[in-house]
Specification:
Strand content: under 5%
Radius of gyration: 18 Å
Number of strands: 0
Distance between the termini: 21 Å
Number of domains: 1
Shape: globular
């Protein structure tokens, strides 16, 4: 049996492919939640139960692996994205939490996870996720970023009423600035990575809503339908994951 200290790094390298699939997964998380909730009529509680069960199965499979497997990793990301969206939407719609309160709440959760992670491991580097303990911290942090990013994005989309396409370009511009500062080492690697990781959630959500929502829901939306957008983006994710599985361009080794 493989010792947990000799596991290969369980997450992908941070390449352009990573960010493309991350945004696609985020968009799917938004549209899939809408499709299951509204189109299939599962409702808030039914959708949360179904997707939480799916996430539990995928996360168990991911944690049992001894190396990074693109298909399992990215399927888990899609499930986490959907569940993170559902948690925030449920707390906002059914329990009266305001979006700014949820942003702060999950921001505090994320900071707490990082603090415990650092105290226990003395590193937050993605390249050192080669034990199941570190991977556990990683997945809790990922879930918190999706929940936080959902709430932060809804401040723009719902509370401030920014048009969907305009919001998409705003988030894209902010991400580009942070990426530039990260590249010239004004921002640290850990801060730059997780900040962009959070911001890709509202970016993908606003773009997904722009493509999928009806004109009645958002005047500037394209009304392509949640099911259609979900299927197309899932197809793109599958194609990219197959490519990465064959080429192994995003596989990294432990430090």
């Amino acid at each position: 049996m493989t010792n947990i200290k000799t596991l290969l790094v369980k997450v992908p390298a941070i390449t352009l492919f990573f960010w493309i699939i991350k945004v696609l997964s985020t968009t799917v998380g938004e549209t899939l939640a809408d499709y299951l909730n509204s189109t299939l009529g599962l409702g808030d509680n039914g959708t949360i139960i179904v997707m939480t069960a799916v996430l539990a199965i995928l996360l168990a499979a991911q944690l049992l692996l001894t190396k990074y497997v693109p298909s399992v990793y990215w399927a888990t990301i899609v499930a986490v994205s959907t569940v993170g969206t559902l948690i925030t939407d449920n707390m906002h719609t059914n329990f009266g939490w305001q979006n700014w309160q949820l942003t702060i709440l999950f921001g505090v959760v994320l900071i707490a996870v990082f603090a415990i992670w650092w105290a226990q491991e003395k590193t937050l580097s993605i390249k050192t996720i080669n034990t199941r303990k570190r991977e556990g911290y990683y997945w809790v942090a990922v879930l918190a970023t999706f929940a936080m990013g959902t709430a932060a994005g809804d401040i723009f989309l719902d509370d401030l009423g920014f048009p969907l396409l305009e919001s998409t370009f705003i988030f894209l511009a902010v991400i580009a600035v942070i990426a530039g500062l990260w590249r010239i080492k004004v921002l640290g690697q850990v801060f730059g990575f997780w900040t962009i990781y959070i911001l890709t959630r509202p970016l993908g959500a606003s773009f997904g809503d722009y493509l999928s929502l009806s004109k009645d829901e958002a005047p500037d939306a394209l009304d392509l339908g949640a099911q259609n957008v979900t299927l197309v983006f899932l197809g793109l994710i599958v194609a990219l994951v197959v490519y990465l599985s064959i080429t192994k361009r995003d596989v990294i080794t432990a430090e």
